[in-house]
What does this fold into?
Amino acid sequence: MQSSLFGGNADVPGDPGKLASAPPSAPLRHIPLLERFEDLVLGEAEKRAALEAVCGEALTCRRCPLSRSRRNVVFGDGNPLSPLVLVGEGPGETEDERGLPFVGPAGRLLERALHANSIRREQIYICNTVKCRAADFDNGRWNNRAPTPEETDHCQSWLEQQLGIIRPLVIVCIGSPAANAVIKKGFKITQERGRWFDTSPYAPWVIAAFHPAYVLRMQGAQQEAAMNLLIQDIGAARKRVIELRKAARAAVAPNVPNEPNEPDSTDPDGPTREQD
Ligand code: SF4
It folds into this structure.
């Protein structure tokens, strides 16, 4: 059994490319909306199958105009059994090309922030609020733009189904648009990042962090400070998962000691942290 990132056994690494490359002809299965998952607890195989079915459906989605310019639907990547899910805004050029989220320069910075917290990206699940690249054609090339509210609304049900199947304990919203979709409308990332919210329908606990693309646009000391906050917020999420799992185990078996691979400390700045 894989040693656990969060002190349990559920975060066995998945196949990063499997979901994104599921063929459009994958068998379809109707997945109910999030509220209808309230009383469902999916097993590992059922969870993977349900997610692949939704992914197969999403790969052929033409609900909004972004379907006309996309190269790939970027559904999600990583371990669907992870208690920790990262949700970003939408794919950029590299993500559109490869069909995977956060694989361009911002993705590399995100991986550094994960690595600083001793997390490998394949151990967690990463997706976006909008599954197709939003871009305008200008001066002979496609330029990224923010998805419109209508495009985001059209895509919301894919995210709902995804998170309804995964049922993470903790979500990190990467950037303001994701926080608007997952936490609340009008979210102010500069004022509210790093705070915990327990009011989202998608997970018991949600926190928002700066988007790595925002960090990349900064320079010098400002960039370093923003990067440290991104690392700190991801670290807080990891720590929250560990705390929740410890509490759950204590509730069902109060006299059972922690597993041998349980981290001694929940401090994300503890001895395993490696700073790039
Ligand atoms: S952005 Fe979402 S709603 Fe629009 S076509 Fe892509 S998958 Fe469908």
